[in-house]
Amino acid sequence: TLAAMSEATQLEQAIQSTQAEPFDLAGVVQSCCKAYADVYREREIVYRGSVANGEVIGSGDLVAQLLDKLVDNAVSFSTSGSRIDVELDEAPRELVLAVTNRGPTLPAKMRRQLFDSLVSIRDQRDGRPHLGLGLHIVALVAAFHGGRCEADDLPDGSGVVFRVWFPRQTLTR
């Protein structure tokens, strides 16, 4: 636990020291989704995007880490052979990234804590507890970009969707 707390602090410091610059969010998301086909062969990762201009201010590398965490989470809570949907859509002043998987719904008692550091609802892996930093990293990266994140059950109760909002910003010079 102490090592995980130290890692969380180091991650926070690394994110805060990252230089923000314009990048194409749609390009980063598409590129990551293509790579997931090789990494998660037991899942179908489907990307859909309707974004014409995906430029935001921040860090493409951090967004890649954020998406890695969301997809890894979706894989952990879905069954082999299932589909994970990654979508990027436009809202009036934001771009919305959504990762959806079929599987168990969110536990009601932990909904407000999902993005906190050291919170996990996963089973142990290889006899070791899961330390719960992934969704915390998602929250930190979303905040770095001036955005926010949330998790909801799908309306039909067949799984969950994680959403991250990225505001369209201009770089002040």
Q: Identify the strand order in the major beta sheet.
A: 2-4-5-7-6
Largest sheet: 5 strands, mixed
Cα-to-Cα separation, first versus last residue: 42 Å
The overall pLDDT, averaged over residues, is: 84
**Helices and strands: which structural class?**
alpha+beta
Residue ranges: pLDDT <50 for 5 or more in a row?
118-131
Share of helical residues:
25-40%
Number of strands: 7
Percentage of residues in strands: 25-35%
Order of helices and strands: HEHEEHEEHEE
Principal-axis shape equals globular
How much is the radius of gyration in Å? Answer: 16 Å
Number of helical stretches of at least 4 residues: 4
Q: Outline of this structure?
A:
With 173 residues, the chain is of the alpha+beta class.
Key terms:
alpha+beta, 27% strand, 5-stranded mixed sheet
Please write out the topology.
Blueprint: H1 2-16, E1 21-24, H2 25-39, E2 44-49, E3 55-58, H3 60-76, E4 83-90, E5 94-102, H4 134-144, E6 148-153, E7 159-167
Parallel strand pairs: 2-4
Antiparallel strand pairs: 1-3, 4-5, 5-7, 6-7
Helix pairs in contact: 1-4, 2-3, 3-4
Report on this model:
The protein is an alpha+beta fold and 173 residues long. The chain contains 4 helices and 7 strands, in the order αβαββαββαββ. It has helices at 2-16, 25-39, 60-76, 134-144; strands at residues 21-24, 44-49, 55-58, 83-90, 94-102, 148-153, 159-167. The chain has a 5-stranded mixed β-sheet with strand order 2-4-5-7-6, with helices on one face. The chain has a two-stranded antiparallel sheet with strand order 1-3. The termini are far apart.
